[in-house]
Amino acid sequence: MKLQMRMVSMPMITPFETSFGRETHRNALILTLQHDGIIANSECVTDRDPHYSYEDNTTAAHIISDHLVTRLGNLPEPEEFMESVSDVKGHNMAKAALEMLLWDYHSRSENMPLHRYLGKSRGYALVGVSIGMDSVDNVSKRALDAKNSGYLRVKIKIKKGREKELVSRVRSTIGDFPLSVDANTDYRITDIDTLKSLDEYGLVYMEQPLEHTDIVDHAELARRIRTPICLDESILSEEDARKAIDIGACKVINIKPGRVGGLSESMKIAKKAREKGCHVWVGGMLETGVGRAYNVALASNDLIDYPGDTSPNSRYFHRDIVKNPFKMEGGRIRPNENPGTGVEIDLEELEKVTLWKKDLI
Ligand code: OSB
Ligand code: MG
Hints:
With 361 residues, this protein is an alpha/beta fold. It folds into two domains: 2-111 and 344-359, Enolase-like, domain 1; 116-333, Enolase-like C-terminal domain (TIM Barrel, Alpha-Beta Barrel). The protein is built from 13 helices and 14 strands.
């Protein structure tokens, strides 16, 4: 058995700006497992800086190499692996990188495409777009382009003081088309009047307006505005989802397998949410083609009822590290039908973008 970890750095076609910062490159940890003639790959969704969550590439590389790799034993099922690492507090993104690697490995050894191995698949993912912050003109133009190229929903990034004019202009530019906003925790409950003033734009939901630890204030906000609340950063587990839904903090959840510790937990959240009448969709973290394939497989599951943020690879990178990037047609992306994630690594390109690599096993 061999396990290799590497850091890649890929320039993005358009830098991606949110309320917490601006990304010009996707700097990602890629894991490659070789065993019994099977090669599996996964990606850790951490970034260079701990802005979206407390984890970053350095903490993830450390947690994986120094605390998690020894638990891989003889390649347990993903859920078993997660039970075996429950003594390590937090670090969901680091754990998810190995959990997903095990999903790829096991579905490849069963000769099944991951999206079918996971459960009941619809056979395609519904696709929306997440547009980073930029001038009002540029965001409006990109929102209209996205609508015209077939995306099923447009999401725009907002932050304090940069919301009214932007949302108003995008709304009048795209007309009556599903639109949402994502604040990445930039507001506080004291900003309620500003957030309430967005009600008039008929947003399908408002994503993570308040702090990640604050489901209590999200519940208060939800009672006082009409726009449904969607939680992203606040939901790290099925338990978080149950509590948030039960206290009325959200009507929608953005599931990111990396944030919640992998695909097993993602499926549990999706089931629980749907049982309770909460909508779910699959988000993204600007993943390379490796991580993207997991998101697309999950987003194809029957439990996922809203369009996600899983745009085709070509929206992010001029050249990806996979030979079979996803294509979008009519707002849909079909997951790969070959075993596992179905990703075929472009080894030459992978080497070109590699900053360092290290053998872990
Ligand atoms: O909040 O959903 C988010 C990207 C990086 C970090 C957080 C988020 C995002 C996105 C982009 O919105 C989703 C994507 O296109 O991958
Ligand atoms: Mg978000």
